[in-house]
Please model this.
Amino acid sequence: MAKAKPQIPIPQAAAACTAFAAFSVSIFVGIASDNPVTTVLSRALLAMVAGFAGGFFVGLVCDWLVREEIARVENGMAADSAASAGDEVGLDGLTGVDVVDEDTGAVAEPPSQSESSDAVGRRREKSAA
Model:
């Protein structure tokens, strides 16, 4: 039996991605502005810490939203299954689903011509040219 991979929680993943993005952008901007190395690195580390905190907060909000949506869907599915269990008809195996007979003649009919004679004439002129 295969072991399940450990999953990274949403807040930690969002925090790590945001921190890396803040750090890398800060490094590139610092290098582009010809700042000293110590200034670039210190500002990049501060940006990384701030990015981690902001990303962690955004990840917590996303995690909360996902959990709320999962709970809402599960509650809706439970309510639907309870409602469908009450609709079932007992002995003959019918479940309350109506089968609609389709008119086979409507499918076999050819489609009607909807182009006007002017449109047909213009199409012929274009193909002749």
Q: What stands out?
A: The helical segments are 10-32, 37-87, 104-108, 117-128. The radius of gyration is 32 Å.
